């Protein structure tokens, strides 16, 4: 069975409810941009690329439904305005990951250009053309994401094998262990994954000894989702709590030592500062302390050249209950028993729950993208602009 967070065919979209995983597998229908917004806000859909794609496709199915019900505005300009309006709403769902804002900018442009081409002066007839152009562009994003992730996986795996592996003196040097954080796999993307795509590529080329994954408190994307993906794909995996990571990295030079930490990203600023799941920064500090390479794996849609540095990235804060409670079935429960939410903190305690942190570029050794791996130049800076051609202009 292929792990699919997003099931789409023209006019129909379903998302895997990631709040229920790994205990239950159920898909929710997304019929509109409002449904997509709710799926993203509630974290039934999460992960920067998946958020962007579900938002884009949520509006695509809404446009198809309007067309089916003969309710699509006939004028091209009106459909372009509707697209503008819905995209503006969708980007309010979660603020930190830039992929959604990037997708919205591109899709808005597609709709406006289609409206200009339709040239019906608001008189009607071109609305269907604008909807068509939008739907096709959203569908391309879905297909491109899988292709890009496979390329990220290949590039990242090659880099780690070449730059972070052993000295090649014995057979075991070929086998690398890596540590990853949060969930960046098929569940966080259209398929394959970014950092977990690198893990998949290492495994597929028989170079992976073991993937360690952190639990990733408070939402437990590592324990619930990454562990699930590793088991599902038969990749040797070991789960640790977040507080064990520094001790694991300190084992460098001993059996199962970690060759690299590989993480995803929600937004990479122009200077390489990277916002990712809370706890990433602590991993980068520990990796540097122990001489372990630190790799960010992300598509170009996560690179935000308009944000100069991490200081300008808005960090989402999530509800206190994610920290003070834990949800799941009780240990011996029948699988059909609904999950229970259990309090784990003292009543009345204040809570700070930032969903992301920013790792300074200084602590990052390489950024693996679908176009190759970017390392720092002699000046010690990442040149991320070179990843983009003319088509990326505003
Ligand atoms: O809060 P989440 O689960 O959406 O956070 C996800 C992450 O931080 C991922 O590392 C990032 O989005 C990259 S997913 C390919």
UniProtKB/TrEMBL annotation:
It is found in: Cytoplasm; Nucleus. The keyword Nucleotide-binding does not apply. One of its GO terms (molecular function) is S-methyl-5-thioribose-1-phosphate isomerase activity. Its EC number is 5.3.1.23. Its main location: cytoplasm. Keywords: Amino-acid biosynthesis, Cytoplasm, Isomerase, Methionine biosynthesis, Nucleus. Gene3D superfamilies: translation initiation factor eif-2b, domain 1, Translation initiation factor eif-2b, domain 2. The keyword Transmembrane helix does not apply. It catalyses: 5-(methylsulfanyl)-alpha-D-ribose 1-phosphate = 5-(methylsulfanyl)-D-ribulose 1-phosphate. GO terms for biological process: L-methionine salvage from methylthioadenosine. InterPro entries: IF-2B-related, IF-M1Pi, IF_2B-like_C, Initiation_fac_2B_a/b/d, M1Pi_N, NagB/RpiA_transferase-like. Pathway: Amino-acid biosynthesis; L-methionine biosynthesis via salvage pathway; L-methionine from S-methyl-5-thio-alpha-D-ribose 1-phosphate: step 1/6. Catalyzes the interconversion of methylthioribose-1-phosphate (MTR-1-P) into methylthioribulose-1-phosphate (MTRu-1-P). Belongs to the eIF-2B alpha/beta/delta subunits family. MtnA subfamily. This is Methylthioribose-1-phosphate isomerase. The gene is MRI1.
